[in-house]
């Protein structure tokens, strides 16, 4: 199989690679119910030393920078309560944590969650967090530009390997809320 974007030596439908995914991501792929068939979720094997977006794009294809999305965990705080959420924006943008995300969460203060919280709560590796397989009760805030991208490269739950998915597929994930201006 050839990946729909980038220059990868190994690409396979994600349902054939469940053993290469973290447990929450494998469970989400196994139980996939989106409008896009699970076989359109493509796993590509990659070098974990090249996981950072700019280095990754330089090695696997310059077009990937504009077709990659980052998923970050945000902690919104209000009155002693903390709400965790995931935010997905294209790699060329940054998450508007203190504007769009904070307001949507109804938080007084918002920040990126500490690494140990993000890793511990998602069951994924730092640098590989993906919107597929997040805790079901979390809000998943997605910038509208991500859904408008035909194919999007996202994490696989591990630093080794990535998923390439139709952008529109992310809008059907549990807890997904599409927002204008989340990525700035």
TrEMBL record:
Pfam families: tRNA_edit. It comes from the Bacteria. CDD domains: PA2301. Residues 48-168 form the YbaK/aminoacyl-tRNA synthetase-associated domain. InterPro entries: YbaK/aa-tRNA-synt-asso_dom_sf (IPR036754), YbaK/aa-tRNA-synth-assoc-dom (IPR007214). GO terms for molecular function: aminoacyl-tRNA deacylase activity. This is YbaK/aminoacyl-tRNA synthetase-associated domain-containing protein. It comes from Streptomyces paludis.
